[in-house]
Amino acid sequence: MYSEIWQDPRLSFKHLNVCATNITLKSDFRKKIWTPDTCIINSKDSSIHTSPSENTFIILYEHGLLWSNFRLNVRAPCKMDLKMFPFDSIHCQLVFESYSFNTDEVRLLWHDIPVTMMEKVELPDFDLLGWNTDHQRLEYPNGVWDRAQVKFTFARRYGFYLFQSYFPTSLTVISSWVGFFFDVKFTFARRYGFYLFQSYFPTSLTVISSWVGFFFDVRSVSARITLGVSSLLALTFQFGNVLRHLPRVSYIKCLDVWMIFSVIFIFFTLVELAIVCQLNRWERERQIGSKVLGHWLNQIRWERERQIGSKVLGHWLNQIRSIGAQ
Question: Residue ranges of the Neurotransmitter-gated ion-channel ligand-binding domain (predicted)?
């Protein structure tokens, strides 16, 4: 509901001495009188409810005071900061100005009670924390205009995201630790949520599946590389799919940190593979070198034994020839 109050002495009827102190006029009467021509300059779209007729009224008091009331539907921008999503808050602002008249003709001032809530506002995703009003005077090329502003602050209800993503994933991680102590089976009834299935759960499975390569044989290099690279590509695809559903912002979100650490985990599995393969290659080279060295030593030993045997045989033959000559 939007209300305006202004004074127009030309419409005063107290001097007529009628019984009524105020008169309620139809909405079409508004076109026949002077109005302050107030507009919401930052609105994307606005309309007056019609159910079944236009929801407006004008009351004229005996001193020429007019009270105009509208039932408006306004779509205006809100400032969002997703750094702490889903624990963030947003600020929505409505800016009022007289479109046709500057301060020489119209002054815009807030009432003593500028905003009144008839009942508590209930929104699916946000809680209304409060509001504040402001008044400014802006200078344009053709004069000075009054500007009245009201800012509403909403806090996001994070219970949905807490129970649909953070809490289930925490239970899943903690339950995986139970296997370190004993064999136990837990049965969970999963609460399905958009962010759980689009980000946290798929990326967790991708990272865990990349660890399967730790149990492969060291010589299965191709299988381990294929698993690591496939996990990295799958995580990149999942990250891109999540980003399509979020606004493009220049700062790091909590979800970005989750994705970055998931990529780092998979990257280190590939680093571990490279280190293990290098150590295995050095071990094979050491074993091959030991075999070659042993073969060379055997050849040297056989050669020396052959030379020593030849010398001994020659010595015996010389002795035999010497005895035969005698």
Answer: 2-157
Write the burial class of residue 46 (CB in 10 Å: 0-12 exposed, 13-18 middle, 19+ buried). middle
* Domains of the chain, residue spans: 1-76, 79-157, 164-192, 196-326
User: What digits encode the pLDDT tens for the residues 177-214?
Assistant: 766 665 556 686 535 466 677 777 877 888 888 777 77
CA distance 11 to 138: 31
Q: Give 50's DSSP letter.
A: B
Q: Is 97 helix (H, G, I), strand (E, B) or coil?
A: strand
Q: Which of 250, 252, 228, 172 is nearest to 204 (CA)?
A: 172
Which CATH superfamily includes the segment(s) 196-326?
Answer: Neurotransmitter-gated ion-channel transmembrane domain (1.20.58.390)
Q: What pTM was estimated for this model as a whole?
A: 0.50
In 3D space, the residue among 66, 27, 76, 68 whose CA is nearest the CA of residue 50 turns out to be 27
Provide the 10 A C-beta neighbour count for residue 57: 16
